[in-house]
């Protein structure tokens, strides 16, 4: 199957987290995109703003194939992180991206 601009991948939904430990968080989501060649997911993490009401700074922390789980490691104990996920299809050298999943916050344990 070939992705085209008018056939962007479907966004993942139902993003959830569980604290694995004081330094890791496990994320799971609902894959809504039927399997096609080049399908994968980008995982982005945000940290709380430095100033109340300020912007969240987002960084990509992972990229996985056609799975619905990611474990984010090397985190700070007793801290809050935000997450969002999007699907992508790589067709040759061009990426096609879905919209974002729901945004969640996850806390590592002390």
Sheet of most strands: 5 strands, antiparallel
Beta-strand percent range:
over 45%
The quaternary structure here is single chain
User: Unreliable runs, pLDDT <50, ≥5 residues?
Assistant: none
Structural class label: mainly beta
CA-based gyration radius = 15 Å
Mean of pLDDT: 91
Shape: globular
Helicity range of the residues?
under 10%
Q: Total number of helical segments?
A: 0
Helix-strand pattern: EEEEEEEE
Topology:
Elements: E1 13-19, E2 25-30, E3 39-47, E4 57-64, E5 69-72, E6 80-91, E7 94-100, E8 104-107
Antiparallel strand pairs: 1-2, 2-5, 3-4, 3-6, 6-7, 6-8
Which key features would you list for this structure?
single chain, 110 residues, mainly beta
What does this structure look like?
The chain has strands spanning 13-19, 25-30, 39-47, 57-64, 69-72, 80-91, 94-100, 104-107. The protein is built from no helices and eight strands. Strand 6 and strand 7 form a beta hairpin. The protein is mainly beta and 110 residues long. The chain starts with 12 loop residues before the first strand and ends with a strand. It is globular and about 40 Å long. The model has no long low-confidence stretch (mean pLDDT 91). 0% of the residues lie in helices and 52% in strands. Strands 3, 4, 6, 7 and 8 form a five-stranded antiparallel sheet that branches.
